[in-house]
Amino acid sequence: MPQGFQNMHTSHRILVAQLFQETHGFSPVHTPLTSFEIEEGVDMIEKNEKSDSVLGGIIRELTALGHVVVPAFAARARCGGVVQDAAYAFIKERILAAARSSRYDAIALDLHGCTQSASCDSVEEDLVSSIRDITGYRIPIVAGFDLHAHATEKLFRLLNFGTAYKTNPHADAAQTGERVAQVLGSMLSRRIEPQGFGVFLPMLLGGNDETTNGPLAKLHHKMQSAIASDGNLLDYSIFNVNPFIDGTDVGQAVIVYAKNENGVAAAKALSLTAATEFWGCRHQFIHQLPSVRDLLQTFSGTQPRLIIGDFGDRVLAGAPGDSIYAFNECLQYSERHITAIVTDPAAYEQCLKAMEGATISLSLGGGNTPGLSAMDVFGKITRLGNGVFRNRGTFMKGAKLRLGPFAVIEQARYTLLVTHDAVMSQDPGCYLDAGISLDNTDVIIVKSGYHFKMAFEDYGDCHIVETPGLSGFHPEQLPFEKCRPIYPLDPIELPFLESVDLQ
């Protein structure tokens, strides 16, 4: 943990910035600057102060504590392939420019934690390192992360404090931001001086990794109880890295903070105990999902409405969103009406050329994911548009995400939302704000594996299905190199674990 910050004022100026994008390192579709929603200045505060995000939580809590929020730059994009180098360079320079020119006492960051560019395995590590080059270690820097972050030892040595969501599906993004602000306030008033310890494990999780049940639920419960029962402990995070990136030190991480030196021994011991249990249950992180056909046979009647998570083509895990496999299976094995989203820029361009109101036949889907093919569809183009949508569900509630150029195709059997770019479809807002009513459909397909449950639970029964694609857990099919050896690709025995002092 960096040492030496001296500010003792009651009210402080806090520079706030955001860089949020989860990378799928093996996706063929890279992420350009145009995929990012960007804000700066007053606009950044106004558009995020009510959002259910780390940034929103930071802004609201700092304001409530009487501090002044100094907006730097905010950039967030849907999950996707590696960020183009030029895009990252632009975002990085905007944040660094604010760090050079603004007057502030501390820095609070909203970072996904698993962002890669074409030439950088850890964008967050590079960004925070560059900020430190400007501020030195006299300025405290704190950050809130997604729990699927690529948490490296170097990154956490650069931070005074870092904390992650405690839930998957993510229901505590705003609370994570509030915690970042609260800890920073306590640091600036000298009530605490966080001391961090981390254990880093060479393994990837293959499923069964929700925090509502299973091994992670038990581990989080034990950690929360330990923190609550020891007044010298401050916080813990269990990082479950997105399993679709390659890079040095990719793996799981358990990080525990003490409030001050009095809690150092307890923090170190807790990180080791938790990591040892985590490693010991590594074989439990697998799941068995039903096929689309089996799910449809189980729910063969007219009720309930089904919301199907296309696990193999999860845009929330960085997949391209181009698969029509689940949609095609629903057409074959059900007579029910289907609403689905598919990314296909060529099909969108055909719709744009045909114009709204036209009836069109076209080949749809399968343009980017290896092994997938297109299928023929037809219907009436009922709407063309280009814009954003508002999240209605718990995850990132109130946030506006990019929908981009889209076309709606309708016929008796189905309604299709055809998008030019991949869309985070875990929320009904992506359909509703494209003008699609969900009241009279029977099956809704989303490109999500977890988070859609929190947003669609009022619409029907939510189920995940096994489907082909880049976000199914088949690590042996991906060209991992830098992170190896790593479980389960390699036979690894860890005779002992080490808790690293992050000061």
TrEMBL record:
Residues 13-297 form the Microcystin LR degradation protein MlrC N-terminal domain. Transmembrane segments: none annotated. Residues 308-482 form the Microcystin LR degradation protein MlrC C-terminal domain. Pfam families: DUF1485 (PF07364), MlrC_C (PF07171). It comes from the Bacteria. InterPro entries: MlrC_C (IPR010799), MlrC_N (IPR015995). This is Microcystinase C.
